Amino acid sequence: MPDNPRRARGAIAVAAAGALLATACSPGAGPGGGGGELSGVELLVAAKWTGIEQQNFEEVLAGFEEQTGATVSYESTGEDTGAYLGPKLEAGEPPDIAILPQPGLVQEYAEQGALVPLAGDAASVLEEDYTDYWRELGSVDGEAYGILLKAAHKSIIWYRPDAFADAGVEPPTTWDDLTGTTATTLSDAGITPFAMCGASGWTLTDWFENVYLSQAGPEQYDQLAAHEIPWTDDSVVQTLETLADIWGEDSMINGGSDGGVQTDFPTCVTDVYGQQNAAMVYEGDFAAANAVEAGATVGEDAVAFPFPAVGDEPPLVVGGDIAVGMGEGEGVQELLAYLASAEAQTTWAGLGGYLSANSSVATDAYEDEFTQQLAQTVLDAGDSVRYDLSDQVPSGFGATEGRGMWSILQDFLRDSSDPEAAAEELENAASDADS
């Protein structure tokens, strides 16, 4: 990506932060070693990551240890971050830094007084290297608490090029092309268009968010996320009607709607790339790992196209993880500044399975062309990109198994005949979660 004044300012800020962190470090400084400005300081970071994600993150943390002499320990929260943090907060023993999977949790913990505002270099890097939207995402009442560390691109549809070639179709650019020419031609060729991941309710909220963002636009998307307009609004009903173009057609889905609601993620990816029961599957960039497990090669027989435009513009929905400080001790703000920096995130980008929202991380930091393209789309989108809506609302409505959006959209996948009734259920659930 070409240089620009904003990037130059960000690079200067990051360089200054790096210089500060490196001050007084000797070549032998390391975890628990002498000579670092934070020698003897012990910090605890908690996040949901396990396996290769945890290994990569710990490699990034090692860079901070080497520069400062601090010792950084990691604990996995498991998938339910709130269940992990609740007892820790009650006992007065929270981690120094927590990495939250939902902006809604940032607001919840800030209102409890459990978070420490960003300060010093951490606040400076956020101001210089992140767009207004990302800054606001981690802020509560104008106070910055969090930094989006790891993004997930949720606006792509994976497909099998061989299936498209057999049917004689190209990747569509509009919703009408997707549901019309592409899907119809695939069906006529005896190829089921979609594998659906409906047993994992969060995948259905991702479908909804992409269609809603493109069809209703960013302003109404923000209003709906804040519940400033009701879920019975015409824009919600229209999105449900649009989803029914696929969800309401059994011939579109592997196993029909019943099969779709019984198939979880990542089995749906295996259905496309392992069993080859369908031509396409919708989910984010992270589905690449599951395609590889199914025997596909990303960029060759596992490729993706942007989620088609439903309205005037195609959507760009991003999920991700936000780092917040829960401790006020020495080293907390320094570690937040390091994790937010282009230096740390460039290291992370080179390890794979990662996307950055930091505008100073060059796209060539990523190990493959596909990820480079995804990273560039996030940077190019500027403030038109939107964060996963279901992760912005109260978790009881947007992110809980068997409740709220997950269960209501699963019911709508089973029977898409009454969008108005589904919208009414969504509004009732949202209102209950707000009360």
Automatic annotation (TrEMBL):
Presence of keyword Electron transport: no
Annotated PROSITE patterns: PROKAR_LIPOPROTEIN (PS51257)
InterPro entries on file: Bact_solute-bd_prot1, SBP
Statement: the UniProt record of this protein carries the keyword Transport: yes
Pfam families on file: SBP_bac_1
Keywords: Transport
Residues forming coiled coils: none
Family of this protein: Belongs to the bacterial solute-binding protein 1 family.
Protein name: ABC transporter substrate-binding protein
Protein species of origin: Nocardiopsis mangrovi
